[in-house]
Specification:
This protein is of the alpha/beta class. It has 15 helices and twelve strands.
Length: 348
């Protein structure tokens, strides 16, 4: 997994290739985020690994005159997976490829995506002891008790008719917070409560603190991480915003779906693979999405979600319940990994 373990196939195919004990062993590298590659200077890498000189060439581990551990793992592994089908396609493009898009295109025949899962015993609104009130698909109308409890705990007006939209995230550019910054005045209207949980870049931490100061009845900035607070937000919020610049898989939207908190996402990586956009005509979908990395497009999507929430609450509830019924447990993903492992092991 990732650059931290990516030298395993390099060792296996170089320093250990003459040891008969390792003959026939297959390797599969899983990339969780191509942005993090583990890059050091070549002399240091040679000193600590003992790799032969040919390993540090442009067609192997060399990358812009340095040694790239993730690149070495990709080159020397038999198969590469990443954490969603869409991300597996995206990293073959220059915009998402982090300088390795050519290598990923070369690896295409032995590359696929398998979406992550979540623990359905930990994230279970029907059994969750950390939330204010347990509920399930058949008792979805009781979800509102969690909203009231969260409003009280955060010091927000206790009003069932406020649209509560949340962000639970690292506060970084990757998560699309520059888009939020550009239209936050429009998001935080008098009918909306905006709840943020997370830490990250000071620019965004200060942004949300400022808006909590400016609109204390509308914004709650929780600039820290608390598992307990996260559970309560997942259960209490109406919608979860994830406007990511890129998102290899994403877990937040999977948990939000599980809790009937409707995701509003950008169509990238695992967000595109796991959130089915709402279709008014056939009343299908589990969330709302937008395609381009554009603040105006994101705002239009948020406002469309608000319109459905305020004017067609029955349909909103149906969207939420469909999300709760979707299965993103590890059982499905584990089966795909198991089948892939067996297929790779069948290779000569």
């Amino acid at each position: 997994h990732d650059w931290q373990a990516a030298l395993t196939p390099v060792f296996l195919r170089t320093l250990f290739r003459d040891n008969s004990f390792f003959w026939g062993i297959k390797t599969m590298l899983t990339i969780h985020n191509l942005k993090f590659q583990g890059i050091w200077d070549i002399p240091t890498m040679r000193r600590f690994t003992g790799f032969p000189e040919y390993v540090f060439t442009p067609d192997n581990m060399e990358f812009k005159k340095d040694a790239n551990m993730l690149k070495g793992g990709i080159v020397f592994s038999d198969y590469v997976t990443t954490v969603s089908d869409t991300y597996a396609n995206e990293i073959q493009m220059p915009y998402y490829g982090e300088g390795l898009d050519g290598l990923m295109r070369h690896k295409n025949p032995n590359l696929c995506g398998i979406v992550n899962g979540i623990d359905y015993e930990v994230w279970a609104p029907g059994m969750d002891i950390q939330i204010y009130h347990k509920y399930a698909t058949k008792t979805f109308h009781q979800k509102v008790y969690n909203k009231r409890g969260l409003q009280y705990e955060l010091g927000l007006p206790e009003d069932d008719n406020k649209f509560m939209i949340a962000i639970i995230s690292r506060l970084t550019d990757q998560k699309g917070l520059d888009l939020v910054r550009d239209v936050i005045e429009n998001i935080t209207d008098e009918n909306t409560q905006f709840v943020v949980l997370g830490t990250g870049d000071p620019e965004y931490e200060d942004l949300f603190r400022h808006y909590q100061w400016k609109y204390p009845q509308r914004v709650s900035a929780n600039i820290y991480y608390s598992d307990n607070r996260a559970h309560k937000i997942y259960a209490g919020a109406d919608a979860m915003l994830m406007p990511s610049r890129f998102e290899p898989c994403g877990l937040t939207q999977l948990i939000a779906l599980r809790y009937g908190t409707v995701p509003i996402v950008r169509e990238t990586g695992g967000l595109k693979d796991t959130v089915q956009p709402y279709n008014w005509y056939d009343n299908s979908g589990t969330g709302f999405s937008f395609s381009n990395y554009d603040a105006g497009e994101m705002l239009n999507t948020i406002n469309y979600a608000k319109t459905i929430y305020f004017t067609q609450r029955d349909r909103w509830n149906e969207i939420a319940v469909r999300g709760m019924r979707a299965d993103f447990s590890w059982a499905n993903s584990a089966k795909r990994y198991q089948d892939l492992y067996r297929w790779i092991m069948s290779w000569w």
